[in-house]
Amino acid sequence: MNRVNSEIYIKKILATGNEAAAWGVSYVGDIEVPVFPITPQTTLMHSLVKICGERSGVRFTNVESEHSMFTFAIGATMSLQRSFSATSSQGLFCGFEQLPRACGGRDPIVFALVGRAPTSGTWSLETDHADSMIARDYCIQFYASRHQEILFDIIFAYKVAEHTMLPTMICLDGLILSHNASGVLLPRQEIVDTFLPPFNPPLDYGIRLERPRIWAQIPDPEQDAFFHKSVLEAMRKSEKYIQKEADEFSGLFEYQKIGLVDVVGNPSKADYTLIAIGTMAEVAKKLVSDQVAVVRIHTYRPFPKEVLEDILQDAENIIAVDRSFSYGSPYGPLATDIRSLFLPKAKHFSFTAGTRGLNVTDETYKIMIRETAYMKQNDRAQFITKDGR
């Protein structure tokens, strides 16, 4: 999109990633916002208050912990009201008890996760994917890599969450995106409304006076297993819906909305295919050539297995790069999922980089490519620091 279409967009502003997320929330109508601060998420809520704190349909509630924040969000959606919340790192861990509840309860809460390294022996405020990866099996996950994508992912997440009736997490790299600024286009409200209808959940969902119900009971094991199978099926079916809605979004907003994956270069002909998530994938794109292709995974859950198998069916050397450790596992979460694909022609290489705020540059990827020359395949992820060790 070279020119700004004034029929679609109001203006272009300079915004941090947290501000872009706040602007995204401002478009979704009446909403309940439970608030509890944690760096680097805090300025997101500050920005949201500045943008729409005076609106009658936007209600902020200060709560005493992230556990209460998620509980409040679930209660809001069960009361047939949209909700939004955001957290980081230890905040997610504090509230994590409620995430399986939201998933199993089919509560379409939407929240942002501003990625930050967990406090594990040492403190860090730097970016990492270890916090979001821990939650990957209990929600739909989108990983934004650019400021404009953050704003659009927020809007997009409500459409997906309310169709699938599953919690949805928008992940953005802390500090790298959250506190750095870039140009962001603000769409017109009527265009957003065309894409995102009002919240209208199924009649069998939520607290309705005409349909009294009891929640959180202990069912028969067979009934319980059948119920949770429906959650699994909903997650699997969401994959095609996500791509379909991304295509619709692209047409309405004249912006290429990435649904599942973003491919740059030709994995079938390149010597190396780099696979990464978030801003690390944007860095990898600097190396794209006849020899190097890049696959950025935008939707990590549901994991786009069939799409990736199609893209990578003729790939020669696949380098999967995680931004999180998986203690006790030979590979990081992303590399483990990539190795689960049926790719008989490929050699797999796994690296961990960028954890706990370590910088990732094009040189980092060049080191990985050089390292593969000495291996047939690596049997465990190799950790790359800025000097390649």
Number of domains: 2
Strand residue percentage: 15-25%
Q: Give the C-alpha Rg.
A: 21 Å
Low-confidence stretches: none
Give the termini separation. Answer: 40 Å
**What is the CATH first-level class name of the largest domain?**
Alpha Beta
> CATH homologous superfamily of the largest domain?
Thiamin diphosphate (ThDP)-binding fold, Pyr/PP domains
Number of helices: 13
CATH structural fold name of the largest domain: Rossmann fold
Structural category is: alpha/beta
Estimate the mean pLDDT confidence.
Answer: 95
Largest sheet: 6 strands, mixed
Topology order in helix (H) and strand (E) letters: EHEHEHEHHEHEHEEHHEEHEEHEHEHE
Q: Report the helical percentage.
A: 25-40%
Number of DSSP E strands: 15
Shape: globular
Please tell me the CATH architecture of the largest domain by its name.
3-Layer(aba) Sandwich
Arrangement of strands in the largest sheet: 9-11-10-13-14-15
Describe this structure in words.
The protein is of the alpha/beta class. It has two domains: 9-253, Rossmann fold; 263-384, Rossmann fold, CATH 3.40.50.920. 37% of the residues lie in helices and 20% in strands. It has 13 helices and 15 strands. The strands form four sheets. A six-stranded mixed sheet has the order 9-11-10-13-14-15, with helices on both faces. Helix 1 packs across helix 2 and helix 7 (147-164) crosses helix 9 (221-253). The longest helix is centred in the middle third of the chain and has 33 residues, at 221-253. The protein is globular and about 65 Å long. The mean pLDDT is 95.
